[in-house]
């Protein structure tokens, strides 16, 4: 089973993706981690990714798609995968050739997301960058929800509750 876990930055998608991968015994793929490692390479692509990440912008769709799809062809994902942090734009979703069985969307308000992110105290979690990332999410990523809703694979979950309750909700909605 191939499952995408979506939600704005700070929604807890990585936590839920890890729990789900562990529960189902399948691999976990974090697109943000892949981009982070690529951004450290001293290449044109690495520098482009690094620029986008520092400013809170999205990385070029074609660039991300090619790397994500190449990675997902790996042996470790042959029995299924939980995908965290991808796709991030409607274009990526529409052009993603990897088969997706379910998309779990964690609904969390901007206020709660911002509170959570500011508590992390990371260098890239300034109030200004958080606002930019959330606005970008609403503009670029939220349109994906209708795309997956129309495909009949979207599961919407209230992400403003305790981690364990959210996870129980996900399992119930997925029938696992």
Automatic annotation (TrEMBL):
Residues 30-59 are annotated as: NMP. It catalyses: AMP + ATP = 2 ADP. SUPFAM superfamilies: P-loop containing nucleoside triphosphate hydrolases. InterPro entries: Adenylat/UMP-CMP_kin (IPR000850), Adenylat_kinase_CS (IPR033690), P-loop_NTPase (IPR027417). It comes from Candidatus Woesebacteria bacterium RIFOXYD1_FULL_40_21. Catalyzes the reversible transfer of the terminal phosphate group between ATP and AMP. Plays an important role in cellular energy homeostasis and in adenine nucleotide metabolism. CDD domains: ADK. ATP binds at residues 10-15, 120, 161. The keyword Nucleotide-binding applies. This is Adenylate kinase. One of its GO terms (cellular component) is cytoplasm. Monomer. Its EC number is 2.7.4.3. Pathway: Purine metabolism; AMP biosynthesis via salvage pathway; AMP from ADP: step 1/1. AMP binds at residues 57-59, 85-88, 92, 122, 133. It is an enzyme of class 2 (transferase). GO terms for molecular function: AMP kinase activity; ATP binding. It is found in: Cytoplasm. It comes from the Bacteria. Consists of three domains, a large central CORE domain and two small peripheral domains, NMPbind and LID, which undergo movements during catalysis. The LID domain closes over the site of phosphoryl transfer upon ATP binding. Assembling and dissambling the active center during each catalytic cycle provides an effective means to prevent ATP hydrolysis. Keywords: ATP-binding, Cytoplasm, Kinase, Nucleotide biosynthesis, Nucleotide-binding, Transferase. PANTHER family: NUCLEOTIDE KINASE (PTHR23359).
């Amino acid at each position: 089973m191939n499952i995408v876990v979506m939600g704005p930055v700070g929604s807890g998608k990585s936590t839920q993706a890890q729990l789900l991968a562990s529960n189902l015994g399948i691999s976990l793929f974090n697109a943000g981690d892949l981009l982070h490692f690529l951004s450290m390479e001293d290449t044109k692509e690495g520098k482009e990714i690094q620029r986008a990440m520092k400013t809170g912008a999205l990385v070029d769709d074609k660039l991300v798609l090619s790397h994500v799809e190449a990675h997902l062809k790996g042996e470790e994902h042959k029995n299924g995968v939980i995908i965290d942090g991808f796709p991030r734009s409607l274009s990526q979703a529409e052009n993603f050739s990897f088969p997706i069985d379910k998309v779990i969307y964690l609904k969390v308000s901007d206020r709660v997301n911002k509170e959570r992110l500011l508590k992390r105290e990371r260098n890239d979690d300034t109030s200004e960058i958080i606002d930019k990332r959330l606005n970008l999410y609403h503009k670029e990523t939220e349109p994906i929800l209708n795309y997956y809703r129309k495909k009949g694979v979207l599961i919407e979950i209230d992400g403003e509750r305790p981690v364990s309750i959210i996870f129980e909700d996900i399992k119930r909605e997925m029938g696992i």
